[in-house]
Amino acid sequence: MSESLFADASKRLEQALKYVAISEDASTRLKYPKASLSVSIPVRMDDGSLRIFQGYRVRYDDTRGPGKGGVRYHPSVSLDEVQSLAFWMTFKCALLNLPFGGAKGGITLNPKELSKQELERLSRGYIEAIADFIGPDVDILAPDVYTNEMVMGWMMDQYSIIRRQISPGVVTGKPLTMGGSQGRDAATATGAFYVMNAILPKFELLPAKTTIAIQGFGKVGAPLAQLLCQAGYKVVAVSDSQGGIYSAKGLAIPSIQQYKSDRSGIKAIYCKDSVCNIVEHDIISNAELLALDVDVLVPAALENQITGANAAEIKAKYIFEVANGPITSAADQILAEKEIMVFPDILVNAGGVTVSYFEWVQNRSGLYWTLQEVNERLKEKMVAETETTWSIAEKFSVSMRTAAYIHGLNRLGEALDAKGTRDYYNNKSFV
Ligand code: GLU
Asked: Can you tell me which atom of ligand 1 is nearest the CA of 350?
């Protein structure tokens, strides 16, 4: 794609700006990231050699509170991608009314090529490099693609070593024993499930007669498939980076999950073994999964999966974006023409950062909540903001994506304007 990811992401802001009454100062500020840091991280590899990795942290906006966002380990990580992800976090946190701004970090690497010890040295090295840029009241890290609880534990530990004080609030998504929250591991999936359950009945899509395809059977896609399956929805296709499986009758998600974790990958399911006996299925590619004739499509992998090149092939009637940025703005237009409804990432996948907020609150108060408390509070927030976004979409006759940006923008605009606007300064009287 010739256009940068950030240029494409910014188009959503432009569309929403037409419907909000925020000051010109505020809208101008939101077009630029507040601060971007690019670092080189030296790592001693197991064979004794030294390798330098490229890392980033972008704080897009912190008007509503400290920056908040995950750290991604992936070969395609670039400053443009991290900046776009930080931009999405800004709107996501505002949309869910969390007292945070938006940030994101990443390191360019294929984590599967590193040993655990090398990954630990790299994670600690990243914190060494960005320690002055982050903090529990400045910018708070979390997991993202290919980072997990263990990586968050190393990061929190390294930051505490540097500061010479235990600082659990600098990282969320930590192991429970290091101040993590109940429910954080499955929070993105749980939140997406609450949004889908609030939306699907509006279209009379009741579980038993609703077919769903999920692209991405990882940290988020797999638990979401499980929740949907438990609720009685027919999950007919799932995939990972290697490929996918499809069964018109519906897949046996718990056994597939078990199989994938035992044998690392859905590819292992292409066998003639037990899972194949539980339910007959066809092997499909990721591209075929996206084009399946299902009611609901859930992209839960990476960005730029549905683009101008393949949007015309989509047959699902409803798309829930569980990944960040899986649909480009060019694809948005094609999907709208085909009357396919898209429920946007900044709403659908906001369960992760919402429970991250709960974790940060628990770290600060020292009082820890039960799983039930976490999930009740998560449900309340996800459903309330989904309904408000729905009403905004109806009021202005706009897409759910534009409505979500309008909702977030109103809160961001108010916060930015509270610091003073051009009108305020031009007015000569004191108040
Ligand atoms: N990486 C997740 C996201 O994109 C979670 C961020 C967080 O918990 O801060 O929303």
From this structure: 10
Write down the pTM of the prediction: 0.93
Which residue has a Cα nearest atom 9 of ligand 1? 69
What are the residue boundaries of the structural domains of the chain, listed by start? Answer: 33-178, 187-348
Active-site residue, selected from the candidate residues 18, 31, 104, 338: 104
- Give the pLDDT score at 397: 97
Ligand 1: which atom is nearest the Cα of residue 172? 8
Whether pLDDT at 259 is above 80 = no
What DSSP designation does 421 have? -
The residue nearest atom 7 of ligand 1, judged by CA position, is 353
Domain 33-178 listed as CATH 3.40.50.10860:
yes
pLDDT per residue over 16-32, tens digit each? 999 998 888 888 999 99
Buried/exposed 28-60: b ≥16 CB within 10 Å, e otherwise: ebbeebbebbebebebeeeeeeeeebebbbbbb
Closest C-alpha among 89, 76, 74 to residue 33? 89
Specify whether the CB–CB gap between 318 and 298 falls below 8 A. no
Average pLDDT over residues 258-270: 63
68 is in an annotated binding site: yes
| Ligand 1 pocket residue status of 172, Cβ below 6 Å | yes
CA terminus-to-terminus distance, the chain:
50
Topology of domain 187-348 in CATH is Rossmann fold (3.40.50)
pLDDT digits (tens, 9 = 90+) for 221-250: 999 999 999 999 999 999 988 889 999 999
